[in-house]
Amino acid sequence: MNSTEGNQTDHCLEFSCPERSVSTAVYVFLYVCAVTVVLLTVCGNLLIIISICHFKQLHTPTNMLILSLAVSDCLVGLFVMPFHFIWLIESCWIFGHIFCVLFNFVSFQLTSVSVGNVALIALDRYMALNHPFLYSKDISSMIIHTLIFLIWFFSLLYNFAMFYVGGNFTDLIICPGECPYVFGENSTIVDLLFVVIIPCSLMVILYIQVFALARKHANAIRELNQNKNVYKCDSMRSERKAAKVLGILVFVFLACLLPYYVCSVTSDSSYLMINNVLILFYLNSSINPIIYALFYSWFQKCIKLILSCRIMYTDCSFANVLGINK
């Protein structure tokens, strides 16, 4: 046994999960809050998934990207949030070494998929506003489905390479009660580049262009109103509204993602601090359905139809049920 392994073994012998330092009432309250957040995340994203899958009028390229994002958010609520909350509340990882590696892999996989989906949403809105005729003619459901598949597939390959080629899990001695994720310095730089810097820069640049186009379209709408061109006016207004709502989604996503990566690359950030900041990113999966519910009338109508079980009717998937243009 070399000195490094000896030091790690000594550390494991000294390590023990800390005893609970909070009262029973606070302990129960923390678990109630955790369960509430998980249920809101899973149920909210399930409503989005059911709405887009069931209602034929919602089978648009943009909504397919929203569907992919909702699936990844729902999986975060099912397979990441519960274990992360238990880990933080108990101040101890109680699920073992193998599940620790699986947990970290799933967490990073869903993170990279979410980043890819949000970047595609930004690109979709830019194409729809800057090249509307090309977008309506050439951006088909097949192209969008292919792009979504590629995001999930390449995220899987990327994270497999990061964990089992660039990671140190094969040589790492993990103490009972701990669940670290350890990458080499080069792997950390690569992850920061491909998961944060490049896609986030792309999102910001595209949405600067989108909002500039939205203002340009606002002036065009005023002219169209004067010429009584109602159809074109409604279409442009619909695209602008979609751009604004999805712009909110993109910037909320960035606000939740960046603090975690800032802490992870800061040398004086503790492991506990990073885990606490990571909650903010996971909460983004809970916030997205709230954004849709606040700003999308079609989602509000879908919620009413689903909760009232009216989607069980045979004609409920046709366009006239929602009575919307977009």
Automatic annotation (TrEMBL):
It comes from the Eukaryota. The keyword DNA repair does not apply. GO terms for cellular component: plasma membrane. The keyword Transmembrane helix applies. Pfam families: 7tm_1. SUPFAM superfamilies: Family A G protein-coupled receptor-like. It is found in: Cell membrane. One of its GO terms (molecular function) is trace-amine receptor activity. It is a multi-pass membrane protein. Keywords: Cell membrane, G-protein coupled receptor, Membrane, Receptor, Transducer, Transmembrane, Transmembrane helix. Residues 44-292 form the G-protein coupled receptors family 1 profile domain. The chain crosses the membrane at residues 28-53, 65-87, 93-123, 143-164, 192-214, 245-262, 274-295. InterPro entries: GPCR_Rhodpsn, GPCR_Rhodpsn_7TM, TAAR. Belongs to the G-protein coupled receptor 1 family. PANTHER family: HISTAMINE RECEPTOR-RELATED G-PROTEIN COUPLED RECEPTOR (PTHR24249), TRACE AMINE ASSOCIATED RECEPTOR 19P-RELATED (PTHR24249:SF381). This is Trace amine associated receptor 14h. It comes from Electrophorus electricus (Electric eel). The gene is LOC113592313.
